[in-house]
User: Fold these one by one.
Assistant:
Number 1:
Amino acid sequence: MVGLDTSDDAAVYKLSPELAIIHTVDFFTPVVDDPYLFGQIAACNALSDIYAMGGKPLLALNIVGFPEDLVENVLPLVLKGGADKVIEAGAIIAGGHSIKTPEPVYGLSVLGAIHPDRVITNAGAKPGDVLILTKPLGTGVFTTAAKAGLIDSTTEKEAIEVMKTLNREASEAAVNAGVSAVTDITGFGLLGHAYEMASASEVTVKIKAEKVPVISGILEYAAMGLLPAGLYANRKYLEGKVELSKNVKEELVDVLFDPQTSGGLLISCPEQTAASLMKELENREIKGAAIIGRVEKKSASALVVE
Ligand code: CO
Ligand code: CO
Ligand code: CO
């Protein structure tokens, strides 16, 4: 039902008129020093693609690459962090595979389920829709600043909370509200994933930069030039594809391109649904969710930032 052609979050395969499976895989090198936390964040990030399709995770398999000298003391903590998040998601870890690598790598392949009629893709955004982002941006700038030893405790606390929060509540709220399209914000940043949604949906997406939630302190770190390599790559990839207003501050533009680890959901929903969905997100204690823009009929630029 969903494959490569729309750059969606996961593959979806229909087994019967009542049941489709969602399949995804995600892994990366450590984004924080604490191994237990790294496990939690990696699992949250991998599970997120199931939530972005509106599904429920059932089963996860560990993907592990680890240096021999860290296998005994560090790896068990990473695996525990991952397993705890999978359990929190109501799914189970049923095995996995590991190899020796020079640098630690961890992630999951996750299998989920959904009714075939209820699959939410990134291709359903409609002119007149409102766009909601459910987590603040800035985790890429955070990890870069942290590696440089330059992070303050408020920013750190907030960034870690963002990365280890499952998108389950946001996804359930979106499913219940009835939405047009969803994707999660990960490596390509807000603008990369918004561009994918605009292209797949054949619409123009307009983002109001000053409405986009950002983790506190991140704009200051961005202004200091603490930008991850992936941010430059995202900017380069979208060159000529996004119309950027000159009025948006440079550090905010950078953050809009910032690759996110375990970022929030970008939801496109009918205008009349937006207020009740925002209320529901608030009831579910999803802090930092905001209306950040709207969807219009396709024009010359697929993505406009003003
Ligand atoms: Co995704
Ligand atoms: Co993914
Ligand atoms: Co094996």
Note: The chain has a mean pLDDT of 96.
Number 2:
Amino acid sequence: MCGIVGYVGDQQAAPVLLDGLARLEYRGYDSAGVAVFGDQGLEVAKAKGRLQVLSDLIDGGRAIHGNVGIGHTRWATHGAPSDVNSHPHMSRSGRIAVVHNGIIENYAELKAFLMGEGVEFASETDTEVVAHLIEYFYKKDNGDLLSAVNRVLHRLEGAYALGILSADDPDQLIAVRKDSPLILGVGQGENFLASDVTAILRYTREVIYLEDGEMALLTPQGVRCFDHLMRPIEKALCHVDWEIDAAEKGGYEHFMFKEIMEQPDAIRRTVSPRIKDGRVHFEDFGLSDQDIREMSRMYIVACGSSYHVGMVGKYNLERMLRRPVEVSLASEFRYMDPIVDEKTLVVVISQSGETLDTMAALREAKRLGAKVLSIVNVMGSSIARESDVVLYTWAGPEISVATTKAYSTQLAVLDLLGLYFAQRLGTLPEEEYQAILDSLLHLPEQIEQVLEQREQIQYLASQFFNHSSVFFIGRNCDYALGLEGSLKLKEISYIHSEAYASGELKHGTISLIEEGTLVIALATYAKLFDKAVSNVVEVRTRGAEVLALTTEDHRADMEGIGAAGVVTVPHSHPVVLPSLGVVPLQLFAYYVALMRGCDIDKPRNLAKSVTVE
Ligand code: F6R
């Protein structure tokens, strides 16, 4: 979704802004713009399309001079992608510039008020009201920008992160946030604001996380923060230890491929430090053994791929804990009147930690009295900060819109959580506990083995990349895995694909199977392998071409029933098998998209972090 960068210091602002925006490109956008104050006053450049169009327009930033500025990549919500709807938006006098992430829900009402005051609007956006409204109060407040911004905030409904620059106070930037991420980067004689830490990592690793309703005033000399009543507040400075090159392609053609290949290391980083003396150990875990024993119900709540992790988690946790686990889409959770009380544990999963629906579900769960444990990748993100307990996935920055290493590390953390709870509940025999733990410890090297098959997977992709419709089928965890395989394929290759629990085929969907339909049969779960064979035979009889994913010991069986291609994963504990099975599915989706010439890291219409409902 939209990205924000702001700079105030002694460097030329425009190149810094363009550089920061380039690092936010992965979030998805359709236009970009910058506003810089310099000897020519407040200059604004905006362009629909790729950031390169904007960069060419201002000669890589060299055409605009000045040491303070704000930049934005826009993902259209109110008003189509166009030069004029791009941010920054200007006040009527052209002296105040605003960039905004989020949605101003009461913008129509505010717009009507401003039009009544004679203000003319240039764009169709909700953001423009903010620029005009700040100017309106700025005049009333006799030129006190901070207080004008504060008065505006009390009138805005919705979600927003704002960066504000005024030609009348040109040595400062103002930052504010509510329900939309915004961080401040603290440097030496220069300071930054950004919607995402990757935008400023090249310049500083010291950041301040703004909380909802807080404001900040940035000058080259420092950063001052205020609460919603404009009382000064002290904020902690946090150090970000992500490597800069973790957010670079490092010789790979696409971030997605790089991130697929990084999975063994990401899982090692996530799992190993949490195993001590043959037991799962979580540092500063905020749930007591009594809390765990008293837990009567557990929900897993997430969106998209993170939800698919929850689907696998349901099978795995119920198996380990013998307790009911419900999985809910975050976008449904808060509207479904969930049965939640103080003995309920809600596990929230989110790579970004900023997904708006997931955040709203978290707040609803807390409102109803539940304890919230989150599995999050981005340190200091909103979801992490509002949870009772946070387990970080130490996957490093994930840039590709289609998640891969975040999915894998989330799954590994959920398995660790299952083991941790099982030990306290006494629900797993010791042998089984050790077998799962052992499989988790061997997972990185087994994923390396799966990655070695990438040429075969590439070959299979070359045989099937022009299919227009694909079905993934499987049972139990293989069904949950199919959901992720199908999402991966459709989101980056634009091929229509669906995942079905194999047993459901006969209840309707099998009528879609005809000569040449591609069916990807997932059959890694040994206990249900015979059932998987029957389903493959069923669809083969109706003319489907089948690609099968199974364990090495079942390769011959699958070939024997006419699978056009068989990919295998090494033997592992059934709880851990989905963590292996997902890798060939990611690779298959990647190669298919590559052969179809798709924009793999930035699929159309998608955004990395979905911060609107
Ligand atoms: C798909 C994908 C999305 C995300 C979803 C949730 O590849 O990445 O489906 O999983 O938008 O995002 P987070 O995990 O950041 O809450």
Note: The pocket of fructose -6-phosphate is lined by residues 303-306, 350-352, 355, 358, 402-403, 487, 491, 609-610 (CB under 6 Å).
